[in-house]
Amino acid sequence: MIGVVRTLFAGLRLLGPERSSDLGGWLLRTVSPLIPVNRVALANIRAAFPEKDEAEVQRIARAAWENLGRTAAEYAHLGTLFDYDYHNPDKPSRVEVHGIEHFIALKDDGKPGLIFSAHLANWELPAICAATYDLETTAVFRAPNDPAIAAVVHEIRSGAMGGLAAAKQGAAFAMQGVLENGGHLGMLIDQHFTRGTVVPFLGRPALTNPIMGKFARRFECPVHGVRVIRLPKHRFRLELTPPLDLPRDAAGEIDVQGAMAMMTAVVDGWVREYPEQWLWMHRRWRPNMISAAALAQYERGQAVTPVFKAT
Question: What is the C-alpha to C-alpha distance for residues 265 and 279, in angstroms, rounded to an integer?
Fold first, then answer.
């Protein structure tokens, strides 16, 4: 099976990044109405945007599937997809980067750092950007369920990115070690986490992994958000935010739940701006897994507005 996957990726490499992306996008957009999990995507979009009519809901879902197909096909080209040159920013390129000064500051400040992101556009590009500019970063990833695809994707990621840490039991110790050694940790925070803290996301309570908030509290290090936007003509924009000014408790320490709520509020804004580029197929909201006590605490809480530090 691994041989089949490698052959498929070899064929995509022969097509080139643009035609591969077009093929993957067309394929998933075309078959998406027949995929059972499309019902999850439609239900999520309706709940997040009750003001949108059914035609717009269907359009967002089809476009989201197209984005996913493009991203999958682009894995064959991850080693060459990122071509932004910080030293020559006017050079024509497939990728543009806004906030590159924050990447440089993270590299030079002598501190550990946290970078959160979301499944938007091609979400693999920030880790490649960090590796390109020698920002010592370990990306936390969840391997695909299929072992053959997982093996090939890991090979591709290993060749294009810096450090990698699989999201599995015991990963927290490896992640902590990265920060203790002054490194940087990048993590996608927009997926369901059964043992998570409850935060608002697109108008509903969602269970979110609190580990980035816990690390922020322990290490008192900069916390940035980074997103990718898919642009016309096979181009991308990476945007790295300034460091967040995270909420603190009465003792002056970073409040973990408040920190996760603020990070999630940043992601909320990203998704609302480009809903067709997010991964709606994921069962992000699972209210039956939220305890009555956690839900009551959530309902007593206040909305969190992202606040960024001056740089």
Answer: 17
Separate counts of helices (H) and strands (E) for the chain:
12, 9
Distances (CA, A) of 285 to 58, 194, 212: 20, 10, 20
Q: What share of the chain is helix, strand, coil (3-state, %, to 5)?
A: 50, 15, 35
Two structure tokens written together for 303: 């909305």
Give dist(CA 84, CA 86) in Å, integer: 6
CA distance 10 to 27: 18
Here the tokens at position 37 are 């999990």
Give the residues across from 138 on adjacent strands.
163, 185
Query: Would you call 236 helix, strand, or coil by DSSP?
Result: strand
Sign for the CA dihedral angle at 308, 305, 182, 250 comes to: positive
| Per-residue pLDDT reduced to its tens digit, 155-172 | 556 555 555 455 555 677
Rg (CA), the chain: 19
pLDDT in tens, 30-44: 999 999 999 999 999
